[in-house]
Amino acid sequence: MTDSGVPEKGGAGEGGRQGFWVVVVGLLVVLTAFIVAVLRYEQAAQAATALGPVTAVVGTLVGAYFGVRVGSAGREKAEAARQVESNKVQKLAAAAAPGVATQVLGVEARGVGVDR
Predict the structure, then answer these.
(1) Cβ distance 51 to 34 under 8 Å?
(2) What pLDDT score does 7 carry?
(3) Contact 7, 80 (CB under 8 A)
(4) Whole-angstrom Cα distance, residue 83 to residue 67?
(5) Distance between CA 47 and CA 73 in Å, rounded?
(6) Cα(54)–Cα(37) distance, integer angstroms
(7) Does the CA dihedral 52-25-8-69 come out positive or negative?
(8) How far is CA 35 from the centre of its chain?
């Protein structure tokens, strides 16, 4: 945990390995399609036409994978920061005089020993 109370992420842990394999599989698919296209078509224009859809789909899938990962990481970081701030507010409210806390929160004071 960092000084601000936000949990640290382990750099190239599980997500780093998954991302590596997504890229490797994507490159293997494109390389396989390239080899098939070169062997099958005699003209470069035909090979390029055959490779276009393959590279577009692989690029889209890999990009979507990393886009979702970045979004998830951002959401987790924001939630952790929100929790830290919530803890600070709770500590501040606990340290404040009961009359002040109820006045600021706009609720009616209840309980024993509360100034009215």
Answers:
(1) yes
(2) 47
(3) yes
(4) 24
(5) 39
(6) 11
(7) positive
(8) 35
DSSP state of 7: P
Q: Cα–Cα distance between 115 and 99 in angstroms, integer?
A: 6
Question: Are the C-beta atoms of 81 and 52 separated by less than 8 Å?
Answer: no
Residues 6+ apart with CB under 8 A from 16: none
Coil, strand or helix at 96: coil
Q: pLDDT, tens digit, for every residue of 71-115? A: 888 999 999 999 999 999 888 878 877 777 677 777 765 654 555
pTM score of the predicted model:
0.55
pLDDT for 35-67, tens place per residue? 999 999 999 999 999 999 999 999 999 999 888
Q: pLDDT higher for 34 or 114? A: 34
DSSP 23-84: HHHHHHHHHHHHHHHHHH-SSHHHHHHHHHHHHHHHHHHHHHHHHHHHHHHHHHHHHHHHHH
